Amino acid sequence: MGLIRGRSGGTSEEAFTQLRVLSQTDHCALTEVAQRIVDDAVRRAGDSQPDQAPDGERAGEALYETVFANAPIGLAVIGLDGSFERANHALCRITGYHQHELRQLTFQDITHPDDLDTDVKEATRLMNGEITSYQMDKRYYAADGHLIWIRLSVSIVRDAAGEPLYFISLIEDISARKRDDELLRRRASRDALTGVLNRSRFEEELARYQSLARRHGYDDEAAVLMIDLDGLKQINDQFGHAAGDEYLKSVADIISRRLRLSDVFARIGGDEFAALLPHTSTAHAQTLAQKLVEMVAANSRGRVSIGIAMLMPGQLDDALERADKAMYQAKRRGGGHTYGP
């Protein structure tokens, strides 16, 4: 069942909504508030004299309504068909929709297609009594169309006979948390100096390609290039490590601009880079390697030696090792050369 977050108003109350981490006790208390409102609505619908309720009872209902309306996270009462029956102010801020707009929508309308199936399955299990609640992180479309991440907690209200009446949804905006997680993931997979992928990420991508090739029986070739910077030590000794760092960055930039978006390029050692070239013939790999040697020589203060290894059926596992050996053969020729099949 889904609800979400969207445009922000920048108020201090919203900042509290976004930054506060709710405890399990908070979740239970807010769910109870929403359920009490539903219970009161059901009772009033069956009351022949709703205006005759005792003052204390009406005061209690008003208190619950106030708590619901002003809760620091999104709260909603969702019909069994997915419609938004009730929504509080926080949910409107989160989604960017006005209350009357939400009441014309269902959770299906604003759910990211990739997340809808899981949500519907969990809601169905909840209706069938297989579970008492569920929680999930998922994406929704805000009123302005941009995607947002929310943490959704859902429970259900039943009548005296045990039949389901409504879903109660609690919605926390976790978009900032997801962005931070993605930034950390990207930093963990990148070389700090050059900004290209690091060795561990390259090995992951190579292993993924090898797995796909085995599973789907790729019959076309791919190539691995091992690229060594000739003379990095001399540059460091003669001009200082800052100059050596600039050389590394310039080579990474030169090669990155020449490769395709589908290629995987990484720094895998102090003076070594590697590239995975999917769907690449031997002839193309040789031509590209020679072009890279020439481009580095023309646009930097050093040279590179490149070893080439092909990934073909039956020759997947040792590609990096074969490329490394080929690279040393290129260096034995005096540097600034390529070597391969």
Mean pLDDT: 83
**Uncertain parts:** 1-21
CATH topology of the largest domain: Beta-Lactamase
Assigned CATH superfamily of the largest domain: PAS domain
* Class per helix and strand makeup: alpha+beta
Alpha carbon gap, first and last residue:
57 Å
Number of strands: 10
CATH architecture of the largest domain: 2-Layer Sandwich
Q: Class of the largest domain in CATH? A: Alpha Beta
- Number of helices in the DSSP assignment: 13
Short précis:
The chain is α+β, with helices and mostly antiparallel strands.
Q: Could you characterize the architecture of this molecule?
A:
The structure is a single chain. This protein is of the alpha+beta class and 341 residues long. It has two domains: 12-181, PAS domain (Beta-Lactamase); 189-339, Alpha-Beta Plaits, CATH 3.30.70.270. The protein contains 13 helices and ten strands. The strands form two sheets. A five-stranded antiparallel beta sheet has the order 2-1-5-4-3, with helices on both faces. A five-stranded mixed beta sheet has the order 7-8-6-9-10, sandwiched between helices. A hairpin with a 5-residue loop joins strand 3 and strand 4 (147-158). The radius of gyration is 30 Å and the shape is elongated. Mean pLDDT is 83; it is low at 1-21.
Provide keyphrases for this structure.
single chain; 341 residues; alpha+beta; Beta-Lactamase; Alpha-Beta Plaits; 2 domains; 5-stranded antiparallel β-sheet; 13 helices; 10 strands; disordered N terminus
Topology:
Elements lengths: L11 H8 L4 H22 L9 H16 L3 E6 L4 E4 L1 H7 L3 H4 L4 H4 L2 H15 L5 E9 L5 E12 L5 E10 L1 H14 L10 H18 L5 E9 L1 H8 L1 H18 L5 E4 L4 E6 L4 H18 L3 E9 L7 H14 L5 E2 L2
